[in-house]
Amino acid sequence: MRAPWKDVPQGWRSRILLGTLAAVVGYGAAVLLRFDPQPGPYAVMSAVVLALGWLVLDTVDAPAAEWVPRIQPTGDRVDEVTSDLRVLSSHQQASEPSEALRDRLVALARARDPVLADDLHRELDPLRRLSPGEIDRILTRIEEVRD
Predict the structure, then answer these.
(1) How far is CA 110 from CA 30, 37, 80, 124, 145, in A?
(2) What is the 3-state secondary structure (H, E, C) of 18-61?
(3) Who has the most CB within 10 Å: 20, 30, 100, 101?
(4) Residues 134, 139, 140, 145: is their CA dihedral positive or negative?
């Protein structure tokens, strides 16, 4: 069942007529230049070249596709890990310990459990140097809340 020519949109009609005209002129030029073109393969080649040309022309003025991810990207922890290492190193090497390690541990606990954060803040309130064992015990308590 063929669609009547009048039902074909004007843009496609002009493309089909222009493409057919270009293929016939090209075939005539190939015959005049004695390239001895074969009609079947020439028609297939013309159809493929015209289809690719139309695809390129249709995509040139199309708006660029945009994709918005639904999942928010997680922050890169590389800088935070470096900062954590710097805080731990400075806590161990400083002549007077600062509150930076205490604040970092309390903030980490607050992200998991606000009650634990308050307990840790009271426990660490008299500012003192923490041993690696104490730091490990505190981090273990924070991790246990998550599990």
Answers:
(1) 80, 80, 16, 14, 11
(2) HHHHHHHHHHHHHHHCCCCCCHHHHHHHHHHHHHHHHHHHHHHC
(3) 101
(4) positive
Residues 31 and 8: beta-carbon distance below 8 Å:
no
pLDDT in tens, 117-143: 999 989 988 888 888 899 899 989 988
Spatial neighbors of 84 by CB under 8 A, at least 6 apart, are 104
CA–CA distance, 101 with 114 (Å, rounded to integer): 17
List, for residues 33-86, the tens digit of each pLDDT value. Answer: 999 999 999 999 999 999 999 999 888 888 888 887 776 656 655 677 788 888
* 109 contacts 120 by C-beta, under 8 angstroms: yes
Cα-flanking dihedrals φ and ψ of residue 114, to 5°? -60, -35
Tell me if 39 sits within 8 A of 27, measured CB to CB: yes
